[in-house]
Write a structure and sequence with these properties.
Blueprint lengths: L4 E5 L9 H25 L1 H6 L2 H20 L3 H18 L8 H24 L8 H22 L3 H6 L18 H21 L2 H17 L5 H28 L9 H10 L4 E8 L2 H8 L1 H15 L7 E6 L2 E7 L3 H17 L1 E6 L19 E5 L2 E7 L7 H17 L5 E2 L1
Parallel strand pairs: 7-8
Antiparallel strand pairs: 1-5, 2-4, 2-7, 3-4, 5-6
Helix pairs in contact: 1-9, 1-10, 3-4, 3-10, 4-5, 4-6, 4-9, 4-10, 5-6, 5-8, 5-9, 8-9, 9-10, 12-13
């Protein structure tokens, strides 16, 4: 028997009807926060300005809260995005952008326009690695290094490096009376926003959408370097966006299964607490999954679960599928009788059984086995398929609670498996 499996292939491209909804929920908070900040700063600028000290310290409170939540939920990308924004706002709060020393003002402003969006783009491109580990230490070291570079340029009065930021302007940002965004900063901002937005789009990631929103908010803040109200409002907005991104992403991970993308056991329990009237529940189990997993490996087993999940997303009769655990899934049909859902379940069972997928077998063999006769350049292949067994039950006077219906569906599932598998039993 082959010792490993190289890959599972032709598991169909999963149609995901929830992708649009996930994209909408990922982007709705950043967009709403930016719109609200625009309204507040344009129509209520004087009331915001009258807040004085409150407005000045609000970004610290919001960014600190976002950092605490990110650390509590081990969201390293969001945490270090916040830790990038904090020294940026601190520099503004110290009045460095309004400094009469043009070297200080120009260098700090140019660094903010470049380093902040560039860092956020890096966090969007990299995988989530947590916070309190070696990866987090590297990200923190990057932020510290950038701060030290700015301090060194100012301490050494290095006009050559500072003016290089504004190389394409007739009057450099160092010498200009009013700060102007450096060309390289504009490039960094555009690249960072497009990168984060693209990552959010392709991954349907709420954290990436939050990073894109934070970049947009910080850019608007940088467009008004001499307006404390605007800079404070949009820095606060960036912190709020990241905070909600962390909360949303943590909720998603708690209630959705990462492998299949379906709602998980916790989401099922929450759903069952609210079902009323007539409803039907089905329990589905992948036949011989343990043997299949042991024979071909966990990578292929994961592909099988994704295949089943892709079919479950298309279940008819208004059913919602949940990953119950391991190779088991539950389907809830609110407002449906047993006879209404049986045809849909039969169709689902037949569709999964009819689907074939290609397994590419590894060339590595056990030492006790002879070398295969095929050419080393030839990769052995095997077509295979899986089947599922389904048990289903509906609520009635004998099964008054969702827990009773779920247990009855589980007993029906056991009968389906005992009766030969690849079938629906009620």
């Amino acid at each position: 028997m082959p010792s490993t499996v190289q890959a599972a292939h032709t598991v169909e491209q999963s149609y995901d009807p929830d992708r649009g909804a996930r994209l909408l929920t990922a982007f709705i908070t950043p967009i709403s926060a930016l719109v609200l900040a625009h309204v507040l700063t344009n129509r209520f600028l004087e009331p915001v300005a009258s807040l004085g000290t409150v407005a000045r310290y609000t970004p610290y409170v919001v960014l600190g809260s976002a950092a605490f939540l990110s650390l509590a939920f081990a969201r390293g990308r969001a945490l270090f995005a916040v830790l990038t924004l904090l020294p940026a706002y601190f520099a503004f709060d110290l009045g460095l952008l309004e400094s009469e020393n043009r070297l200080v003002a120009g260098t700090v402003y140019g660094a903010l326009c470049i380093f902040v969006p560039a860092n956020l783009a890096i966090y969007a491109l990299t995988r989530e690695r947590g916070a309190l580990n070696a990866y987090g230490l590297r990200r923190l070291a990057l932020i510290i290094f950038e701060c030290l570079v700015v301090i060194a340029v100012i301490a050494e009065s290095n006009y050559l490096i500072a003016q290089a930021l504004y190389w394409s302007r007739h009057e450099s940002g160092i010498e200009a009376k009013a700060l102007a965004m450096p060309p390289i900063g504009i490039v960094a901002i555009a690249f960072a926003f497009v990168t984060a937005a693209a990552c959010a789009w392709f991954r349907t990631s709420v954290v990436d959408a939050g990073l894109a929103g934070a970049i947009a908010a910080f850019v608007i803040a940088c467009s008004a370097p001499f307006s404390p109200e605007v800079f404070s409002a949009y820095t606060t907005t960036a912190g709020i966006i990241l905070m909600f991104a962390v909360l949303h992403d943590s909720y998603r991970m708690a209630f959705h299964d990462e492998l299949t993308g379906l709602p998980g056991r916790r989401a099922l329990n929450q759903r069952l607490m609210g079902v009323m009237g007539h409803y039907t529940i089905a329990m589905l189990d992948v036949d011989h999954f343990k043997s299949f997993n042991d024979h071909w490996g966990h990578a292929v087993g994961d592909q099988v679960l994704k295949l089943v999940a892709s079919r479950l997303r298309r279940i008819e009769r208004g059913g919602t599928a949940y990953r119950y655990g391991g190779e088991e899934f539950a389907i809830v049909f609110p407002g449906r009788r047993l006879d209404d859902v049986l045809p849909a379940l039969e169709k689902l069972c037949n569709a999964i059984a009819a689907h074939r997928f290609l397994i590419r077998q590894s060339r590595r063999q056990r030492k006790s086995q002879p070398a295969p006769p095929e050419s080393p350049s030839t990769e052995p292949r095997k077509w295979d398929h899986v089947t599922v067994s389904i048990g289903v039950a509906e609520s009635d006077e004998h099964l008054p609670t969702p827990e009773d219906v779920l247990k009855a569906a589980d007993r029906a599932l056991y009968r389906a498996k005992s009766g030969g598998r690849n079938r629906v039993n009620s």
